[in-house]
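Pasting as-is:
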Amino acid sequence: MKKLIISIAAVSLVGGVLHASMPNDQWAMLKGQTVAADTIVEETAAPEPSIIDEVIWVVGDEAILKSNVEAMRLQGEMEGMKWYGNPDCSIPEQIAVQKLFLHQAAIDSIEVTESEIISQVDQQINYWIQMADGSREKVEEYRNQSIAEMRQELRDEFRDRQLIEKMKEKLVEGINVSPADVRNFFKDLPEDSIPYVPTEVEVQIVAMTPRVSPEEVNRVKDELRNYTDRVTRGETSFATLARLYSEDPGTARQGGELDYTGRGLLDPAFANVAFNLTDPNKISKIVETEYGYHIIQLIDKRGDKVKCRHILLKPKVTDEAIEQAKLRLDSIANDIRDAKFTFEDAATFISDDKDTKNNHGLMANTAEPGRLSSKFRMQDLPTEVARVVDTLQVDQISAPFQMVNNKGKTVVVIAKLKSRTEGHRATITDDFQVMKNVVLAKRRQDYLLDWVKNKLKDTYVWMNERYRDCDFEYQGWIK
């Protein structure tokens, strides 16, 4: 029996599996056929090559492979996901819906940046490692892949995810709701259907950075000079040293590489040096920023953006320096309790935390994109702060404690609980924004559901016969 074999050159890796993409008229040749890594042959006597995948659906000019479904099933098992109905039907349907948005994103020329992709890939892998008790080896064993292979596999997957999300955002950007819409939506709802607002707190802090000894600073600088000398002598590459020694977790795995970035998104001291580099074969002088000490290597410049590598080293703080900072903050906290000055004064004139000192020490919650608030749910606070604040009464000041700030530096902090709003059912008067968000999300979800239904009417869809008896969420797949 003849079997159609597709050349390995005609397929590409997407999400870690072989993915083929061809014009619709060529898909007619592939329906129901198997895909193997070989050239197109017609043999009857020779042994058939081993099958590595199978096309099960086609949406537009995008194929869905059996391995795509298995990869999503495996990831769902790792993350404890529950599937709608029969997973053998709901998983390929979910992938097919994503293909609809992806196809539209290509039509509308939606784009995402490489730095956005890398950031989400790292977050995903770090999450898996955390779920595996911090063991990279366990993750590699479970997925039967190296971390490097996972990163390569996830890159295209996360690129597609971001394109899909941006496409959805564009589709619903004009949808909004009025106060009357919100009132009407909740008017007849039973109480247990009204959203529950979890406990929220407002927190003020005074932070002090323990003093780093001159000897430690010199040690770090000597290390960086040594790296520069080794690269200059040709002993090794800058990227290799960055992978081995850089203390920037966001770039070390990529050989210290920062994708094309504008000056405004970089630390000013770092940007001044990076944008003045002209020779990719030379390494910058040592640069001090609020993150630590860097050396930088230029990769390329494009318009008003620079692409470079860097190695970051952070001076270590001694236990003695931490204890001295705690003693000083403890004395400051006692002076505040004795009304010698206010917590707000201490935050403004004493605190080293640039993000809060100009706001009287009040922490800002940036967890929700596009919305800045001083109110935090406990799970949105830094772990060390949440642990301390959970034990405080309103207006009470904590004992000094140690934490790592968002710049990766060890600091000592005293915290004050400014306010606490206990968890409750939302009300229009006190929680209008929460209730508005519920109504807005529902309206946007309904719009996207209708969009998918309408999109199916004029999109080419083919599926393997075994899926035609599925109970799909959307009607219109089978034509």
